[in-house]
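Continuing from yesterday's entry. The apo prediction looked reasonable, so today I'm repeating it with flavin-adenine dinucleotide included to see how the binding region is handled. Same sequence as before; SMILES copied from the compound registry.
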Amino acid sequence: MEGDVVIIGAGLIGLALARELAQRGASVRVLDTGEPGHAASWAAAGMLAPSSEGLDGSFYELCSASLERYPAFAAELHAQTGLDVHLRREGFVSPAYDDAGLEFIEARAAEARARGLHARMLTTAQTLQLEPALAPVRAAVFFEHEASVDNRRLGRALRAAVECAGVRVDEGLPWVRVAATQRRVNGVETAQGFISAPVVVNAAGAWAGGIEGVPEHARVPVEPVKGQMLALAMPANLVRHTIYARHGTYLVPRDDGRLLVGATGERVGFDTRVTAAGVQRLLERALRIAPGLKDLALVETWAGLRPGTPDSLPYLGAGALEGYFLATGHLRNGVLLTPITAELVADAIEGRTPRISLAPYAPERVRAASNVAS
Ligand SMILES: Cc1cc2nc3c(=O)[nH]c(=O)nc-3n(C[C@H](O)[C@H](O)[C@H](O)COP(=O)(O)OP(=O)(O)OC[C@H]3O[C@@H](n4cnc5c(N)ncnc54)[C@H](O)[C@@H]3O)c2cc1C
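Holo prediction written out below.
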């Protein structure tokens, strides 16, 4: 069996890259040891929020470019598959409850304005008019440009799109191993046989650091960062905007009537259990933000693993072997970064200069950093 490109990992990142490459005419295979779109990409909240997340520098620019791509990306997927990914563009409200919170949101608003974005400060009355379910706030900032997407729907749409484009997705594989010399990749071995390919992409999310067969010098450290979440069933429009509070607590309304509450951030290895303490923490924080949620039914709890890197930036582009590329390590922003990752990593694979430099995300920076340290 042969292909131009084999992608390891069928999360949002691997699937979007497969779609992009197939649209550019490549023959692509995607391999997953689990169920496509069902790891972090399924567990996420789907926020597309570079300002609320407090990102800066070139990483902000990367995230912002991806946010700009989203309306067209969603529309293209709809046209290709008939599936609606429920992109919601009504903006984010970031509330403050005390002096420290106020200082925090004013700084975020100032950063956004310096970038030419509209960040409106809201009084207590204006905030409660916009979102009556919130506890009385000191003030809030309204980021009109931020959006959310139903990431589970996005996973289904991307899977349908790649299959429409003729990409074969193999799931539930017992094992996958990169076939490589010390210098270059030759393909991928699986329980079903050897797939010869000049290009192999590691898009295995939180598992990307442990892909078998990758020589030591081409490995990159990736650590799972567990996030627990839950969903409440809310009356129509009880909360209409995503509410993004300090310390990473958020309420994200979905078109299907669920209100997502997230998320914890835990470095506990590959544990995906939902714990009593995790649920307690989420509910305590959510009810502090919006006490009126207390009577809503708790309809779902879950946990997923964000792919974390030592500097919290993704690995995008060529790895330390000829033909070996990485598209992983997106930590808290992989849903947001899905369209831009697909475009830029496809450019790198094709040998084109990407419109945004991938230098800050070069996998090789890991080795450069450890050489400096040693
Ligand atoms: C609770 C939570 C909330 C989040 N909220 C947001 C948010 O609001 N906005 C945002 O932008 N991001 C958010 N994220 C982050 C986002 O979910 C991730 O950055 C993104 O989904 C990573 O996508 P991925 O495709 O790289 O990884 P994954 O979706 O984890 O996919 C990796 C795939 O690789 C497969 N795999 C693993 N090992 C192997 C192997 N050996 N061989 C083959 N396949 C393998 C897995 O089965 C899986 O399908 C959140 C994450 C969590 C956990």
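Comparison notes:
- The chain has a mean pLDDT of 96.
- The chain has three domains: 5-53+152-222+310-373, 92-144, 223-308.
Will overlay with the apo model tomorrow.
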